[in-house]
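Archive maintenance. Older records in this collection stored only the sequence; we are now back-filling the structure field for every entry so that each record is complete. The fields below show one back-filled record exactly as it appears after the update. Entries are processed alphabetically, and Nitrous oxide-stimulated promoter family protein is next in the queue.

ARCHIVE ENTRY
Title: Nitrous oxide-stimulated promoter family protein
Organism field: Wenzhouxiangella limi
Length field: 134
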Amino acid sequence: MNQQSVSLPHETPVLNARLRREFRTMEAMVRIWCRTKHPGWASSGAVCPECQVFLDYARKRLEKCPYGEDKPTCAKCPVHCYKRAQREHAREVMRFAGPRMVWRHPWLSLMHLLDKRHRVEHPMEQRRRHFRSR
Ligand code: SF4
Ligand SMILES: [Zn+2]
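Back-filled structure field:
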């Protein structure tokens, strides 16, 4: 399998370890998706422009994720910061690539499974609780 990395937006802030892993997982899933759905790009080692736009969007959301190291999976997140269309697309990509990840990226797949068990509160709820306890 070609492990060449897809291009990232310029001057991207450094992601912490948790968010980097999340991005690697998303990148791996989009790559699986793109190779099947947009096969013309498979030989170039890159994803197609459409998938690259989606990856850039996902990366931007991760850079702004309020949870940082404590991040849940986006599917279990009470914030849901993705716009509707991108959220639907992420769901579709995950439905398709998720089962294939087990064989191609077992470690990322296992970690994603563990992340699914992680629950977080909405940041507003955290703030409310913080002020109530003062
Ligand atoms: S959906 Fe939630 S967990 Fe995912 S990037 Fe947005 S805020 Fe973070
Ligand atoms: Zn594609």
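Update note: The chain is about 55% helix and 0% strand. Residues 17-37 form the longest helix (21 residues).
Entry marked complete.
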